[in-house]
Amino acid sequence: MCLGIPGQITAITDEAREMAMAEVSGVQREVSLAPVADRPLGELVGQWTLIHVGFAMAIIDEDEAARTLEALRDLGEAQETLDAMAEGQKALEGTQ
Amino acid sequence: MALRDSHVTMAHGGGGRAMRDLIDEVFTSRFQPPGMEDQARLMDDALRQPGARLAFTTDGFVVSPLTFPGGDIGKLSVCGTINDLVVGGAQPLWLSAGFIIEEGTEIAVLRRIVDSMTCAASAAGVRIVTGDTKVVERGAADGVFITSSGIGVIPPGLELSASKIQVGDAIIVNGPLGDHGAVIMASRREFALETPLVSDCAALDKVMAAALQAAPDLHAARDSTRGGLASALNELAIDAGLGMLLNETDVPLRPEVRGLCEILGLDPLYLANEGRLVLFVPAHKAEAARAAIAALPEGEGAAIIGHVVDAHPGQVRMQSGFGGTRIVDMLIGDQLPRIC
Amino acid sequence: MKHVTEFRDPALAKGLLAEIARLCEQIGARREKPVQIMEICGGHTHAIFRFGLDKLVHQGIEFIHGPGCPVCVLPMSRVDECIEIAERPGVIFTTFGDAMRVPGTRGSLMQAKARGADIRMVYSPLDALEIARRNLEREIVFFGLGFETTTPSTAFAIQAAAREGVKNFSVFCNHITVPEPIRALLSDPHMSLNGFIGPGHVSMVIGTHPYDFIAQEFRKPIVVAGFEPIDLLQSVAMVLRQVAEGRAEVENQYARVVPEHGNPASLAAIADVYARRPSFEWRGLGEIDASGLRIRPAYAAFDAEEKFGVGYGATVARHVPEPEGCACGAVMTGRIKPTACPQYGLGCTPETPLGALMVSSEGACAAYWQYGGARGAAA
Questions:
Q1: Is C251 contained in some domain?
Q2: C268 with A36: CB under 8 angstroms?
Q3: pTM of the model
Q4: What is the pLDDT at residue C378?
């Protein structure tokens, strides 16, 4: 449960009520910034947030996201190397 | 102009002059049915071919809101009835239109609905030849309900049926799925979602003609309406007694439909369409049929999304981009948002 | 879709699947003696089935589908109370769509709506508040349902209503918490789980420390995970690595969204608006200490329990027993698989759910039925 989806804050719509427009894949919805309003609201425009039931619940840490993906790509490359080594081993065994 | 009222009142259903004025001015002046008798009397050359058969269909249309991006209930009713005929291989010829109108409906709204019906019908070379209006008290209907029946002619020798579907047939759709359902969902004020989407509402006579020309031996067609593609495919899988395997990465979806589905926790395969059909084409003709459809405006984005298999008869399955496979089941009741 | 598509990349899955297989071999996990990993959150259950992850991973992994589906653990009496409130004159009862089909003893909210109650689906508690602003002559009740992810949003809505002096808005608070049922599961002597996948969106609110007891007291690994397939596979690999190395720690795979200490503004709103109930009833699991929230007396004007005299405190005596033969509790604790329940597919199907886990597609039984192809046993 707890459906959440990344959405980008595109504009502040109501400064006093901490409301902003968020966009998810071309779909617009007004959301509350209350959970992330510990900074000037203007700084949030352009930020990716995690949207849940009409609230920007968290700011997505883009560096963290990049780091996670980088680690996964490294793992994939390491796996390819392992696969290649295993193939090579098999080929060697086959020639004996 | 005899019709002075801005809104429909009970008097417009009373059988007197007010009713006459409404019917004349709003309906018959636009539909121009042949003669003004109580029934349409019909003949078409297509009927004279030996072996030709009549196709006859009926459908009721309710939609809230009455007007939505990309269409209204009028266009919906004409296109829906035409599509029911064309998926059976028929050339659509004549339609009826029965209106249940809620007291208080704006006459301007009625005019718009009738205009878009006329427009959609003439684009498909179809005539609205008979009709009826009834007015019910406020609250007894939601704006306007339309019932439409359609008659078409199936040319000699053409037989499209679920029973002709064969293992190996390619499954083709004529464009991105779920646009109509997403538009209706987004137009519900409670969800306060805004999208640039427009309904896919369209008559598919040209799509079907192009498909038949490219693949004259196509086996079956079905329009995918409420319940979405998943429901149409499940019905066909059961009727054909065969399995269907879809490839998730090949199923065409607009980004906004994906977005809306992610926000509300919906599955796009269950979103309604009003201008989408699914075709079962022998594999060797599949690409030709797809390309022929894709060349038309109503076929933009047409795709081969899977094929018919002898495994899991009566069941639709989908391979995810990940390689995993899941059942695409029949919908149980309405699809509800899954949020919290 | 940024931050989504990248984490659905099949190319990234390859390395992870190989790593999972390698770790399974190393541990000696196999189909007959699997590593049992519980994904606590129903959103994870849904994703596992949607992407077919259960069939992709090494056979030595068995996913146990946990209690983190608020709809599934909602007792029948709570649904009855919702309907009781919704049927009061002048009430507009608002709810997430999720709750519409959950059966109570007098049917579901969907059926109550058909009988004439004004029940509306909303996307956000703020939408319910907006309905209140626009319908001053009506009483608008929002069904506060869900875990810590959703809890703050209801609190923010109540705070906004209080600030604006909205008089016709109240919340029927049935919010529940994640750590307590996990403690209850772990305290069960039959429990055989090897590790947990922690709920990512709950954790973005509460942080990762509330799970410390899982590692420290019960010596089980837990990895807080995101909801895309790559997130889940990476988390499975992280749990396995802990098992292989004999570690039991709280790890965070979903660091792009989950800060270690959670979200301060949300935690402050929760603390301001809610107090813990001594105990709360969970469908299939029974009473669990301190696992439910109620609205503090300071916000009593926005508490539907106070306004209507209906609710857990008032009607706790009216506990409705689970239907005979329902084995939801055993499924939720991982003792049996859904297909082993004698009612699965016979007395209990998605059309006519007997038990809670058949209600929502996030419930283990409904997910098995809908996506898993596991209905052969019943046919």
A1: no
A2: no
A3: 0.92
A4: 36
What's the whole-number average pLDDT of chain C? Answer: 91
Is the same domain home to A12 and A47?
Answer: yes
With a cut of 80, say whether residue A92 has pLDDT above it.
no
Q: Which residues of B touch A27 (CB under 8 A)?
A: 186, 193-195, 256, 259-260, 263
Tell me what the pLDDT averaged over chain B comes to: 94
Query: Same domain, yes or no, for A10 and A56?
Result: yes
Q: pLDDT tens digits, residue range C175-216?
A: 999 999 999 989 988 788 999 999 999 999 999 999 999 999
Calculated CA dihedral for residues B235, B236, B242, B245, nearest 10 degrees: -90
Q: Domain limits at C295?
A: 76-177+261-318
pLDDT tier for residue C317 given thresholds of 50, 70 and 90: very low
Contact (Cβ atoms closer than 8 angstroms) between residue C232 and residue C74: no
Using a CB-CB cut-off of 8 Å, the residues of chain B touching C51 are: 320, 322, 324
Same domain, C156 and C107: yes
* Interatomic CA distance for residues C49 and C38, integer angstroms: 14
Domains, chain B, in order of start with CATH, read: 10-40+48-154 (3.30.1330.10), 162-327 (3.90.650.10)
Q: Check whether residue C82 and residue C165 sit in a common domain.
A: yes
Pair C127, C160: CB distance under 8 Å: no
pLDDT of C11 higher than 50: yes
Q: What is the pLDDT of residue C236?
A: 98
CATH of the domain at C197: 3.40.50.11750
Residue range(s) defining the domain that contains residue A54: 5-60
How many Å lie between the alpha carbon of B191 and the closest alpha carbon of chain C?
5
Residues B340, A3: C-beta atoms closer than 8 Å: yes
The whole-angstrom separation of Cα A82 and Cα C70 is: 43
Nearest to C199 among A2, A17, A38 (CB): A2
Find residue C65's DSSP bridge partners. C39
Residue C4 in contact with partner chain B when CB distance is under 8 A? yes
Confidence at residue C315, expressed as pLDDT on a 0 to 100 scale:
54
Residues in Cβ contact with A72 at an 8 Å cutoff, skipping those fewer than 6 apart: C12, C15, C16, C230, C234
- Confidence bin at C379 (pLDDT 50/70/90): very low
Which chains are within 8 Å of A by 3+ CB pairs? B, C
For strand B144-154 and strand B53-61, is the pairing parallel, antiparallel, or unpaired? antiparallel
Residues C223 and C99 in one domain: no
Total domains in the fold of chain A: 2
Same domain, C60 and C89: no
Are A53 and A74 members of one domain?
A: no
Highest mean pLDDT among A21-30, C48-57, C331-340, C344-353: A21-30
Burial of B238 (0-12, 13-18, 19+ CB in 10 A): middle
Closest residue in chain C to residue B255, using alpha carbons only: C1
Query: Within chain C, how many helices (H) and strands (E) appear?
Result: 16, 13
- Residue C13 carries which side chain, given as an amino acid letter? A
Whether residue C91 contacts residue C137, with contact meaning beta carbons closer than 8 Å, is answered with: no
Query: Using the beta-carbon criterion (under 8 Å), do A25 and B256 form an inter-chain contact?
Result: yes
C199 touches chain B (CB under 8 A): no
SS3 content of chain C, % helix, strand, coil (to 5): 45, 20, 35
The pLDDT, as a whole number, for residue C72 is 86
Q: Is residue C168 part of a domain?
A: yes
What the block records as the tokens of B55 is 């196709």
C88, part of any domain: yes
Helix (H) / strand (E) containing B40: none
Predicted confidence (pLDDT) per residue in C23-66, tens digit = 999 999 999 999 999 999 999 998 998 888 988 999 999 999 88
Give the mutation candidate from B238, B254, B257, B322 for the C interface (greatest C CB count, under 10 A): B322
pLDDT in tens, B53-96: 999 999 999 999 999 999 999 999 999 999 999 999 999 999 99
CA distances to B322, C20, C62, C377 from C56, rounded to whole Å, are 8, 10, 11, 22
Q: Looking at the domain assignment, is residue C185 inside a domain?
A: no
